[in-house]
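Example record

The entry below shows one chain as it appears in the dataset: sequence first, then structure tokens.
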Amino acid sequence: MTHWTAAEIPDQTGRTAIVTGANSGLGLVTATELARHGAQVILAVRKPASGEDAADGIRAKVPGARLQVRALDVASLASVRIFATEIAADFGAIDLLINNAGAENLAGRQNTVDGFEFHLGTNMLGHFALTGLLLDTIARGREPRVVSLSSITHKVPISTSTTSSGRNASTRTGHTGRRNSPQRHSQSNSTVD
């Protein structure tokens, strides 16, 4: 069995791609490789300053990369609507939508601004709405594709402890799911763009 590498990505010249959560992790790698292969890449990120830092890093690796940073918080349906409206107005077609942004918020239940459980709202509903709002724009793309990623975080064991206020706090402990990485323990309360 042979292993696929990013060198096998076909020429993306003339294509426009949106990558959510493109300022770190897999989203950053995806945006970098699409740019390296000629795509115009829209880095859709919650914090535009982080997106600009990511874009600078991509340009350092891929001189001449065609990048735009756009604000998008998939945990907010209002933000999703604004983003989709602006993209539809600014681009005749989108060829590739990579739904990558995800949330890891493990310090107890929280809700999105729209009242949905945070993980469901961020990791699923926001991207579902984004895809639906962009379908007409994507349909006009050249060999259009929508790619939605998920996480294996759900496989990491959950431990429950009681906080000083008497509430249960759930945290995930154990392996990160990264191949060949040491076991790690996490007690973060963070959102990954």
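Notes for this example: The chain has one domain: 11-155. Residues 171-193 have pLDDT under 50 and may be disordered.
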